[in-house]
Each structure stands twice: as structure tokens, then as C-alpha cells.
Amino acid sequence: MNNRVPPHAAYPMNGSPEDFERSGMPYGGGPSPPEYHAGRPWDGYYSGPSSAQPSTNLGQQRVQMWQNNFITDSGVQTGSQSRATSMMSMSSLHARSHMSATSTVPSELQPELNEEQEMKFQNISRSQHLEALEQLIPLMADEDAVVAERAAHMVQHIAKKDADATNFHQQPMVNRQVVESLRDIIIKNKRGNEKIVRIACCTLFHISTRQRGLQLVAQGIPNAADFFADLITHSWSSKDTSLFKYTLMTLHTIISDRTFDTRTLQLEKRMAVLQTITAWLDMDTHINEKALAIVVETMKHFLKGNEPMKRHFVDLDGLKKLMRIISRSTYVSLLQTAVLILKSIAQKDAERVVEAGAFSVLPKHLSHSSQPLVIATLECIRSISDVKAENTGDILYNTMRLLGSNDRRVELLCAGILSNMVANNKQNKELLMEKNAMGAILSALHAASYAESSSQVEEIQERLLATIQNLCSGHRHDKRVHEALVHPDMINLMLHKLSQMRPAILKQVLLIMNKMLVHPDNVRFFVYAHLNGPYGKLFYVQQICHILKTACNQISNVKVEDVKVVDLISLPLSVLHHLSSDRNLLSSITAALLHPENMQVNNTTAFLPLYLCFSTEEKVQREALGLISSLARHPEICQMLQANPNFCHFLRDHAAGRVPSLAGHAQTTLHLLEQGGGMQGAYNGYGSQPHGYSTPPTRVGYPPVQHPQTAPPPPYGHQQYPEHHVPPPYGYPPQHAPPPQDYDPAYRNPQYQEDMSNLSINDDPFVNVFCPETDAYGYPNASGYDKPPHVMAHQMPSDYGSPECSSERMGTPEPDSSWLPP
């Protein structure tokens, strides 16, 4: 194959030598031939002298450079960096792999032959390679070492030409006998003539670069992986480092090809090879990065899916060596492979990866122009993001900067990293808040909320909400978080998320509300918040009661889309308990829970909090009894409870301290029942019990209580509101009283239009009882309307650049990179 680069388009055409000298073009280009034609093939342009080439010494040197016929060096031997794709990449079996960027060195001087030795080569064909190979095979087995070495040199030259052939589909010139002869040379001279062993290994490497040649290697060398694994451990102590390199490259080719069964390679032998090549990483400052990439790629293959090998690599101090490579290297393929190895180890031993310095080394690559490298780095960081460390500032800053990327995968990884790093970590929470991170997080959440729906977008929203939920408490800046969340845009957005009935998002929104409502002053922001839709206005109390009823009808299931049903029951109970501290919301909650539609649970009629008091889950019992302790202040609820002897017995039993977590609520409720309710007195709210989560209930043992289905009375005091306020549903002025029992529930969210309790959540992961077919309320804005805003109405300051900057792509993925995990 011709090594020469075609003429550069910028060079003067049909120019004189003087024109060429004046052009000042660097080496590597050249003048176009006088007879240049666009369709003429490159081969042969510079095969002989041309009158158009300069006659000066400098010109002759350039022409000689173009006319060289030796094998070029891309850096494996000399350590120099090649600036263009090597010739091997044109014909290599792994043209996209790291190995394709590595070529051999210029041919060394062949040994001098005496007359007797020359006689053996007289009849060797100089033009027919196939014929020459047949004649060289017996000479490679000659007892004369010089003759064998000369024959091996010639076979190496033929194999190199064969590997460089432009026609990949033609049959290779080498055959199985050649491979077997080379194998015999290695076996015979392994502990003697290292030079001929190196020539044989180099030849086998060239043969293996084509698929057919690789098959010949497999046929001629049974258990080839074992053969070269033994040779690597042997050649490590050799003075000829090129022998080790050729052996390693051939082994890399073999284990990278799926046609080879490397499972037969024993664990002890794998560990020996891993120990050898890991030790070679100590020489990383003297190794060409492309050759180093082959070493790291080989390590990745040995570590893939093998936990004992990963532990052995860690014990060999391999993590620190990888960190050194990641911090110093600029070669993208090498960096990406090293990061993927880190990720695979971090999935089992994240703390060791962090101790090795991952948080210090990885952040700088988040600004790299290679998007696959950025994604691989983010995946690695996500695997270690739940480990507490001191030096996390750079990770947090760069993650926040990438949160506005328009690459959904990058955005998802960033959201996952942030939610992990702020969970139970006061230091990271404060670091984010000091950088005004809430602005960037809320902007990303609003942007994702009106993006095209998909599982990936939903997961981004869930992770962002989880981050907000973690930022709501546990640090000295939590008040600033609450101030951002009570803005009308965010209040309406949370109601919009509740109306979508997606289990994972429901859980996060309800957790956020629980933490917000711990502060009684925040309750007032939820009184009038509503969404407008085709079925009327939707309020918080209305939707949360619907969520509670729907979850109760799924109580026989352990999970809904990986969310525990017990959480979807206990969280609405807790939120309603907090909201009931407002007297007006107390009346709305009472009316909503007494509505006939919300009393249909598992084919029975029951008052939901009372029904759940007899759950087998202590957490559900605690939240249900806590809500009842507030609802008992309402006269109608108080009368209903007083008329239920089973519940009164339940209260007396737990008030005595049978279950300590229930005793306080039971005593409060008993006291209210004895007093006949408490709506007449001042009602300023009561603290809530701490919330914990465990496994969902498997059954509910309490029989439902039957009581008259009467419309709830108007709220206490008939409060009047300013005209610009929209009153909550259920019975403030008479025109807002609840409809009679036979009303059509089509006025509200379309989830109410049919009983979906018998639907299977396994039919479709995105269409079940928690997910309406259409989003009737659309995206909320500050006025509660359903049209998505073009620009987020509530912008907060952020230290992470302008929206234009935060939405830039990180570069085009490289076509020759692979970031599949090991």
C-alpha cells in the first residue's frame, strides 16, 4: 500500500520549483504533479523522479520523504506522537480501535549472509509472494539461526504488505502453515534468540489485523489466548520491550474478537497478565499514549464482569495508576477507556475509587469537547456520588453547569448526581445554595415539564424534584429554598405534577409538600392555588384526596412502577394533616373525604382515614390517626366517630400506650370526641409526627363504617373572600357547595370518569391508574392557566452562566469511540 499522502489542495498546481519554495507549506504536503487530473488514482504519482520537483537539496529531501518505501513509525517504538491516522488504520481488522493507530517501526538491517547461506535464498521468487511464502516456510525452520532469521524477516515483510492491502475481501497471502511455523519459532527460541521471537510476534500481529488472518491464528495456535498470555509474562523481563508490545497487541486483538473463546483462560493466568500490564502503567510517562491505550483496553477486557479480577487490580494499586493517566492524558480513547474501568469498579467499591482521588481528577473532563467522554465521566461520577468527600466543589459546579444541556442523557445524569450528592450531606447542600443553585434547578425543572413526554424526561423531573426535596431541610439555607418554592409558578407546577398521577413524581412532590408544610406559615400558599381545565378548577385538597383514594384501591399491590403503594398512602395522609391546620382547608378536606366518590374503596364504602387506621402498617396507622386527630375538630366527623364503637375501643386501646407512636394522636382524638369537636375554638395548627417509610400493607382488617351519605355543611363561619381569590371547593358560599349524591363527576379531573381500580398496572409501564390518558390541565403558569409559558415566569439568579451558555452541546461524538461499560 502506498504510504504517501495525496497533494494538498492549497499547493500551487503545475508550479515551478520556485513556486513551491515560496509557498512555505509545511512538510507532509507537496506540489501537484504537472499532469494532475482529478480522477487519477493517487498510487504512482510519486513513484519516480519528476521534472516538476525541485532540484535543491531541500527539495530533494522532500521528494525523498514522499518516495519512502519503508514502514512508517506512528510512535509505539519511539514514543513520538503521530499527527495523522497511521497506515495500519486503513486495513486493520480493528480500524476503529486503539490498535489501529499503532504501526510498526522501520525495518531494521537484515543479518549478513555468507555464500552458503545466500545459496538457500537464490531461488526465492522476487515477484510472486505466494510462491515465495511456500519457499520460505522450510527456511524458517532451518537449523542455521541466521537463515531462519532472514526468512522470518522476509515473511514479516510479506505479512505487512498483505495487511496493508487495499482490497480487504481478497484472500490473504499467508496460510495456516505460515502461522504454525511462526508458532514453532516462538516456542523454540523463547528462552534464547529474543530477536527472532520478536520478528515472529510482529508477523503474527500483522496477520491478525485482518479477519481471515485472525482465523488462521486461531487455527494454527490452539488456545491462542493462553499462548500469548504466557508469552506476555515471559517477555516482561526481556530487554527487548518491542517484543512485549507486539505480544500485548496480538493478545489485545484476540481478546477483542468475539470469535475467540477466552473463557478457557484460567483465573491465575489472567491475574498474572493483569499484574504484568498493571506494572507497565508505572512507565506511563515514557509510553506513547496510543500504545498505552492498548494496555488499558486490554485491562478493560480482563476486568469485564470479573469481580475477583477487579479486586486484584485494586490490590495492585491500579486505581491510583489510572488516576494518574486520567489526570495527564489528552488522548480521548485512552481517557474514555480508563474512566469506564473506574466506573465498573465504582459500582462495587465506590469508596476506594473516591479515596484514589476521583473527585479531584474527573471534573476537568466535564468540559471536554468529546461528548462520549463527558457522558462516560458523568456515569462514573454518578456511581460515586453517594460517597461523602471533602473536595466536591468542582464536581457540583460542573454538574450544575451541564444541567442546562439540551442532551437529555447528560441532563439526566446531572440530575441523578445532584440528588445523590445532596442527600444527607449538609456540606454539599450549602455549597449548592451558596452558588444560587435553586435558580438553575428550577429552570431545568420548568423546561423539562413542558418538554415532549418520555420516560427519560420523566426521570429527569423526578431526580430534580428529589434534589429539591433534599434541599428543603438539613442546612442553614433551607429558608431560601422554601422562599423559592412558595412562588406561584412553583405552587402551580407542583399541583400540575400531582394531576399527572405519575407514581415516582407524586412521591417526590408529596415529600416536598411535607417539608414545606412543617412551617405553618407556608400553608396559606396552598389555600387558593388551582389549575384551570376543561373540567373546571382543580385544587390541592381535591387532587390529594383523589390520589389517596386511588392508592387505597391499589393496596393489594406492593409497588406501582417501583414506588411503594404504602408511600402513596401515607404521604397524602400526612400532607392533608398539615393542610388541616387551616380552618378553611379543614372544611374542604372534610367535604372531599366525605364525598361519595372518595368513599369507594375496594368495593366497599368507607371513610378513608378511618379505614386506614386498621391497616397492618404502623406508618399508615400513624398518619391516618394523625389526620383524624385534626378532622375530629369538625362537628360532622366528630359525630361520625362517636357513633363508631369499634373505633372508640381502638382509641382507648392505643391511648393507653399499646403502640407508643400512636398514643399521642389517640389521646388527642379521644379528648376531642369527649368535648364534641373543637371547631368553635381558635385553630392555629398542630405539629406533625415524624415520618418514616417501610413495607406496604398486605391487608386491611377493619370493616368499613356505614354512615348516611349527606352533603357536608358549609364551612365554619361562612368566611367571605376578596373577589380576586378563588375559594377552595366544597361549601364556602352556597354556590360552591358540593353536588348531591347522584352528581356527574365529570366536572373534575378525567381520572374520576371511570373506576380504574381493576386495571392492571403491569399492562403498560406508563398507562395505569396513576396516569391519565391526557393531561387535561396542561402546564401551569402564575395565573393557573393551562397554556405552557414560552419563558419561565419566575427566574432566579444563578452563577452558572447564561441560558444560552448552559444549553450548548458539548461537542460531536467521535465516530471511533466506544463508551460501552466494561
Folded structure, characterized:
This protein is 50% helix and 2% strand. The strands form 3 sheets. Strands 1-2 form a two-stranded antiparallel ribbon. The protein is an all-alpha fold and 822 residues long. The protein is built from 34 helices and 6 strands. It has 5 domains: 1-69, no CATH class; 88-265, Leucine-rich Repeat Variant (Alpha Horseshoe), CATH 1.25.10; 268-391, Leucine-rich Repeat Variant; 392-485; 518-648 and 683-753, no CATH class. The model is unreliable at 1-56, 58-107, 680-768 and 781-822 (pLDDT under 50). Residues 1-57, 685-750, 793-822 are annotated as: Disordered. This is Armadillo segment polarity protein. Residues 48-57 have a biased composition (Polar residues). InterPro entries: ARM-like (IPR011989), ARM-type_fold (IPR016024), Armadillo (IPR000225), Beta-catenin (IPR013284).
